[in-house]
Every structure is written in structure tokens, then in C-alpha cells.
Amino acid sequence: MIEGPLWRKWLFVNIPIILFVFVLLFPFYWMIITTVRPDSELYRPWNAPNYNPFWTWRPTLEHIQYLLEETLFSTWMLNTMLIAGISTIISVICGVFAGYALARLNFPYAAGIGTGIFVTYLVPQTLLFIPLSDIIRNFSLGDTPWALILTYPTFLIPFCTWLMMGYFKAIPKELEECARIDGASRFKAMLYIILPIAVPGILSAGIFAFTLSWNEFIYALVFLSSPEQKTVPVGVTSELIRGDVFFWGPLMAGALLGSIPVALVYSFFVEHYVAGMTGSVKG
Amino acid sequence: MAQVLIQSLNKKFDEVHVVKDVNLEIRDKEFMVFVGPSGCGKTTTLRMIAGLESITSGQVMIGDTVVNTLPPMDRDIAMVFQNYALYPHMTVYDNMAFGLKMRKFAKDDIRRRVQDAADILDIRDYLHRKPRQLSGGQRQRVALGRAIVRHPRVFLFDEPLSNLDAKLRVQMRIELRKLHERLGTTAVYVTHDQVEAMTLGDRVVVMRDGRVQQVGEPLELYYQPANRFVAGFLGSPAMNFATVRIEADPGGGFVAANEGLRLTVPPRLTDRVGPYAGRELTLGIRPEDLHIADASDPPDLVFDAVVEVIERLGSEALLVMRVGKDAMVASVEPTVPARMRDRLRIAINPERLHAFDMETGAAV
Ligand SMILES: Nc1ncnc2c1ncn2[C@@H]1O[C@H](COP(=O)(O)OP(=O)(O)O)[C@@H](O)[C@H]1O
Ligand SMILES: [Mg+2]
User: Fold this and answer.
1) How far away, in angstroms, is A106 Cα from ligand 2 center?
2) Are the C-beta atoms of B292 and B345 separated by less than 8 Å?
3) Based on the domain organization, do B108 and B168 belong to the same domain?
4) Looking at per-residue confidence, does A55 or B160 come out higher?
5) Chain B residues near residue A188 by CB distance under 8 angstroms
6) Helix B107-121 with B136-148: angle, nearest 10 deg
7) Least CB–CB distance from B52: residue in A177, A193, A196
8) A98 and A143, same domain (yes or no)
């Protein structure tokens, strides 16, 4: 901490934190307030005498009701959950094994392969979706959840591999050597010693992968077309923006409800997640 | 129980030659200590015995089997690492039981062995704690416990005490020695600390730059170092060295002289020093073999020295002195009345004078 007079602490610590928190949280506040604000207030011009964008005295659930009853929102939620869940599981499993191999098995060009994997992660999706859509069409997977379940790992696996590789490298290799002297095969040493220690890292990878696939937009937009197949981000934006008309209430309600699972996942694992980020594996 | 036989062992990491032609016989039940400055290849040698590092050339035998290609688990060894390498997610009990579980011991047997080891090491009270809830000394004991539960044929230790504070290190050193007396298992112990080497080892291997310099019992190395490196490495404070020129004494025998001193070479050494007449060599004198001269000291074994620093350690006093161009340390009575900048007459103990070749460093 910064030592010294109180005003310094305020100037250099408290005020920046407050600003930062404000900037981060304001969109959520806006999302919530828009969700519960009746249409009559939402579309009131800014110069009207009773214009008050930051607060409402007549909260309503009509937008949520509209979203759940008049749109396929619950289907989109299920689709997203399924797609994000399965592709996360696939990616984390592959990432754990690949990351372990790159970090621990001394095969030729391991370092080069590691860098190569990271580079594939850097190729923008806006380029990749063009060849991928060709592949999806050839395998007749268009407009099915598999189109996304199989394409999300193309960026999730490199991501998880990279993250896990760093995590495994931080685990002292003596632990594993000791296990192997103790009588464990390489696989058992990994199973009983390394993986349990790497749980925070695995959770971090899982949370990130889940969030990335939950929020993914381009592939979902390109590979899915029928409304009942869509994911939340695509469904909400394609069905609730008609031409240049924005249905702000339901739109924000969709955004709000859509972020709840991610928020739950985060808060559920936050303890492990934080431990994972600081990588504390001291014996 | 088993002996370990190392023959022409070499290790190269790519082109870097780290362990060079090591030959060593570690006897059954022996406590063998590898000592040397850091980076000299001790750990690498130990890891080759353990099977954690591949062998570039040569052979390692444990008991009657060549183990060159055996995986670590089949060598029936246990290793204690410098950082303890306790499994952080397991309790102390599970840490110790892991090796037995992997080897499919019966549950009762596991419990009995862990209890026994815990009794020996006095860690019964922590069996259900996690490693992070233990102090450094306790972790050290758990690491030892994990090694002894399996009753392996050989223990390998890689600087196990170097993470402990000085007091605990002395205590654990004694306990390690007791443990060895009790179990009698062949042990190979790596350290860079010469005090640990001298006190723990039945025999000591001094290594330097990947080569074995000398193998022998601690006092043998101390009193008869094979070369200048061993002489300087063992002992604290370190041996004093002075470059001298050997001259034939008109009255028979030889004289070793430089700007600061002029000593008659003791008869014990004359035969070996003879060939160096007219040339230089390095004299070695341990600090405890120097004392303040009195009337009984023969004048040809005495020289002048100027005291630069006095370190009074309680049990002894160290006089850091200048003798000609050389610095020398003498270990003397703690109550010595000397003061800084005093000029003293210092005598040597001729029985313990060492001489080394200038080029090769080998003992003359
Ligand atoms: N895996 C490795 N790859 C390359 N060089 C290594 C490796 N392990 C050790 N070395 C080198 O080998 C030399 C001896 O190392 P080590 O056996 O650990 O020394 P010590 O234990 O005596 O301090 C050092 O110079 C070290 O840098
Ligand atoms: Mg070492």
C-alpha cells in the first residue's frame, strides 16, 4: 500500500478504484434499468420535461414477459448452454492433455509447437469462418448445434492448451519425479498428483472457455439460420432488432438473463479461479 | 540393502559435458556424501542413479543389477528433494502412504508402516494435516518419512537440509545420522556444505566440474587431501595457501621461501619436495596448525605476520594476517592478547604442512 497522508491514499488508490468500478458496473446498471423501464419512458425524447434516464418509479416486468413468451429465448438459452457446455468440456480435456505434453514431455520441437498453437489462437475468427463454413457445409452440419460444438474448439483448444501449459510448467517437476520414484507410471503421476494440483488452472481454463463460447457471435451468426437453433447473442440481436427498430426493453432483458449463467459460473468458481490466476502451488 | 556401483559414468546435456567419467563404489549400508561447489554435477549424478536423468555413457549398478534403463519405480530407491516435493493436496498420511498404495501394499501393512515411520520421525501428531500447515522442519520430516516407509534399498538425498535455518539444520543433521544408524540403508547424500559432508558421511566424494577429485573418509580427506582443491574446499576457515620457491639448504634438506616467510621443509616432505628444488610450489597450512610462537618453537618454522583483523568467535579467535604478499588466517586461543596491526611471530606445525604442485594442484 502507499504510505503517507490520507489524501494521497484517496488520490492514488480510492478514487481510481471508484472510477474503475463505476465504469465497469455502469453497463450492468443500464441493462437492469432498461429492462424494468416501461416503453413509455424508454422512448421519451431527451428534451421532454420529465426525461430521467437513470431511474424509474414505475418498474415493470413486461419486457421479460415478452422475451419469455413471445420469443424463443428459453430455447436459445438451452442451445447456448448445450453448445458452450460441450465445447468447453471437449476443449478443456484436449487442452489439459496437450498442455501437459508440451510442458513436460521432452519431445523434439515442443517449444515450436507450443508457439504454433498460440499463433493459431491469434488468427482472427473473422477470417477463419470463411473456410470453416465451407467445411460445415461439406459435412452437412449447417444449422445444427454441431456446427458450433465442433468449431468452437478451434479457438478454445489453443487457448486452453496455452493456459494449461503455463500452469503445468509452474508445478515443480520434482513432485512428479517423486511420484515416479514412489512407483507411479507417468500417467498415474499425472492423474493422482499433477491434475489435482492443477484444478485451479483447469477451472480457469473451463470458465474462460465457457465464457468465450457463451458470448461467441460470428460463427453462431454464420452457421445457424433457423430461429429455434440460435444462441442467445445471435437470437436476441437478430430477433429483437428489426430493420432499424431496436426493441430496447426485451433486448436488454435478453442481455441481462443471458449473462446470468456466466455470472453464476464465475461466482461459483471465483475462489478457485482467483487461486488459479495467482498460480499458488507452493508445497 | 545394496551397494551402488558407478562405472565410467558420463552425462552430456547436448554438448555440455556435466559429469565426466565418474567411477565410484558405494558400499552396502554406507552413508556416502557427494560434496562440491554448486554446478559441479552432484545432482546430475544423483539423478542418474535415481533414473530421472538418462545416462550418456557408463553404467550404474544397484545391488547386482545394471539399472541404466530401468525406470525410477523399478530401482527400489527413495529420494528426498531439496524442496521436499510433498504432494500439496494430500495429508501427511497420504503423502507417506502414496508409494505403498502405488505398489499395492495391503491396507493394514500401509497403516503399520506409516505409523512406524511417524513414530521414528516424531510426526504422529501431524498425520492429518496438509503440507502447507507444517513448518519447514516438519515438512522435512515428512519428506524423510515418505522415503523410509517403503524400506528401499538405497536412499538418495539432494541437499535436503539447505532450506532449513542454521539451527534446525544442525539438529536435522544429527537426526539423519541417527536414522542411518538405525535403518542401515545405503544412502547417497548430495550437499554443497562441507560441514554436512564431514559430519554425515562414512565416506565423502569431492567433486569439481563433473570430475571426482577424491574419495575417502572425512578425516582422510581433511588430513591427506589429494589436491589443492580438496584441501581448500574442506575445512572452515579454509586452508591457507602460499606460493614459495624451494631452495636446497647448504646444511642439507630444503628451504621454502618467499617474501614473507622462510621455512625449513620438514624431513617428512623432503623426498617429495626435492624434485622441485629451484622451482615454485604451493604450501598449504590449515589455520589450526598455526600458533603464536614461543621459545620452544624452532626458529626455522617461524615467520613474521601483521594482524589485520581479529575475529573472536568465543571458542577460538581467528587472526587474519598479512605474511609478505599473502593473507593467512590462524586459529588461536580466544583470549589471545593480540590487537590489530600487531606484528606477531607465528609458528607452524610441521607435521601438518601440505605442498601442492603449481600447475596440476596435485598434492606433492
Ligand atoms: N536439464 C539440464 N539441461 C542442461 N544443463 C543442465 C541441466 N541440469 C543441469 N545442468 C547443468 O549441469 C551442471 C551441473 O548441474 P547440477 O548437477 O545440478 O550441479 P550441482 O547439483 O552440483 O549444483 C550445471 O552447470 C547445470 O547448469
Ligand atoms: Mg544440486
Assistant:
1) 21
2) yes
3) yes
4) B160
5) 102
6) 140
7) A177
8) yes
Do B211 and B311 fall within a single domain?
Answer: no
Per residue in A233-263, pLDDT tens? 999 998 888 888 888 889 999 999 998 888 8
Q: Which domain holds residue B89?
A: 4-233
Whole-angstrom Cα distance, residue B172 to residue B223?
27
Rg (CA), chain B: 25
Q: Helices A232-239 and A73-104: crossing angle, nearest 10°? A: 140
Beta bridge partners of B262: B257
pTM over cut 0.90? no
Residues B52-76, mean pLDDT to the nearest whole number = 94
Q: Do A183 and B102 touch (CB under 8 A)?
A: yes
The answer to whether B290 touches B330, Cβ cutoff 8 Å, is yes
Identify the CATH number of the domain in which residue B224 sits: 3.40.50.300
Domain membership of residue B362 (yes or no) is no
Q: What pLDDT digit, counting tens, does each position of B219-249 carry?
A: 999 999 999 999 999 998 999 999 999 998 8
Is A51 in the same domain as A142?
no
| Domain assignment of residue A25, given as a range | 6-60
More confident residue, A99 or A41: A99
Rounded to an integer, the average pLDDT of B263-281 is 90
CA–CA min distance A263, chain B (Å): 28
Residue A276 predicted with pLDDT over 60: no
- Per-residue pLDDT tens over the stretch A142-158: 899 999 999 999 999 99
Q: How many domains does chain A have?
A: 2
Indicate whether residue B198 lines ligand 1 (CB < 6 A).
Answer: no
In the beta sheet, which residues pair with residue B346? B292, B303
Residue identifier of the C-alpha nearest atom 17 of ligand 1:
B41
Give one DSSP letter per residue of chain A, joined into a string.
---S-HHHHIIIIIHHHHHHHHHHHHHHHHHHHHHHS-HHHHT--TTSTT--TT--SS---HHHHHHHHHS-HHHHHHHHHHHHHHHHHHHHHHHHHHHHHHHH---TTHHHHHHHHHHHHHS-HHHHHHHHHHHHHHTT-TTSHHHHHHHHHHHHHHHHHHHHHHHHHHS-HHHHHHHHHTT--HHHHIIIIIHHHTHHHHHHHHHHHHHHHHH--HHHHHH--SGGG--HHHHHHHHSEETTEE-HHHHHHHHHHHHHHHHHHHHHHHHHHHHHHHT----
Say how far apart CA A68 and CA A70 lie, in whole Å: 6
User: Is position B322 within any domain?
Assistant: yes
Tell me: do A30 and A165 sit in the same domain: no
